[in-house]
Amino acid sequence: MTGPAEAVLAAPPRLGAVRVLAIDGPSGSGKSTLAAAVRAELRERGVGAALIGTDEFATWTDPVSWWPRLAEGVLARLAAGEPGRYRRMDWTTGSPRLGDWVRVPVPEVLILEGVSAGRASMRPSLSVLWWLPGPDPATRLERAVAREGEAARGYLQDWQAFEKGWFVVDAPEQAAFRWMD
Fold first, then answer.
1. CA distance 12 to 18
2. Which of 79, 98, 133, 178 could crosslink 87 through cysteines, CB 3.0-4.6 Å?
């Protein structure tokens, strides 16, 4: 089976001159790990790759409606051949707030990783949508708790309930592994 790096390199750019690989799936499925590995593989091949995780935008109470910040600050600019920028979410105080600015040079490949990365509104601009289902919900919850800490368990349980509904309505799994024609 072709992996995500090969798939995105074989696909045409759809965000201006940028190829976009979206890695979507439920929390705790391994999206961040896969995205980092794909970025490393692309860089080893000499391909300029940028990685943005949706967790740099989302909060427990705003899981998906932050998208205009990404679309306006990064995606529209990259499509125009200009560097993008955004303010990442800062959690150091325990409550999310807008933090430091992150500059995104125009890459050959942009990897968007996280819940809602392959959202329907983005699909016309995607070169590849990769779905990562991960293991059963209980295992995924324990992985996420190990990453975020025990204090986040309740939030993560609520997040799993939200994303289950999001995936039914937005249907990224059904759109994945298909060229976006």
1. 9
2. 98
Place of tokens 């976006």: 180
- CA–CA separation, 16 and 170 (whole Å): 24
Three-state secondary structure call for residue 60: coil
Sign of CA dihedral 135, 44, 47, 69: positive
Let me know how long the chain is: 181
Residues paired with residue 19 on neighbouring β-strands, in sequence order: 109
Beta strands 84-90; 97-104: pairing state: antiparallel
pLDDT at 47 over 60: yes
Spatial CA neighbour of 108 closest among 32, 45, 28, 29: 45
Q: What is the pLDDT of residues 122-135, one digit of tens each?
A: 999 999 999 999 89
* Cα distances (Å, whole numbers) of residue 72 to 87, 88, 96: 12, 14, 21
pTM score of the predicted model: 0.93
Residues in contact with 145: Cβ distance below 8 Å, sequence separation at least 6, in sequence order: 152, 153, 156
Distance between CA 130 and CA 19 in Å, rounded? 13
d(CA 130, CA 113): 10
